[in-house]
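If you are new to this repository, start here. Below is one unmodified record pulled from the training split, so you can see the exact layout before writing a loader.
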Amino acid sequence: MERRSTAIDLAVPRFADMLSAMGTEPRLRIMRLLLSAHPEGMIPSDISSELDIPPSSLSHHLDKLKNESLVNVRRDSKFLWYTANTEALRELLQFLYAECCTRNKAIKPEYVLEICKK
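And here is the target side for that same chain:
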């Protein structure tokens, strides 16, 4: 019998790409910094100085995160402002939560809520 793909099955490659994009130390640090600056975001020069990442490297990392829809960018006159795409992160966390906390209870949902309160 042929197995039909579910919406979750179709989303797995997208979530894998998102996790891969965050899978380097500089990009994970960028994501954490942008989350701390949410919702205003930051301009690249401030990100660069805060994280001590050279501008050319930072540009590469921001492009990778943007290509996976993990960050949004908006132009404000001559500045580019980067923000964490909290909707995409919510979807990724919901995907992980569905397996670890609802279906097989590998992690108790109460524990996840406790972590979120800290």
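Two things worth knowing about this chain: Residues 7-85 form a domain with the Arc Repressor Mutant, subunit A fold (CATH 1.10.10.10). The chain is about 65% helix and 10% strand.
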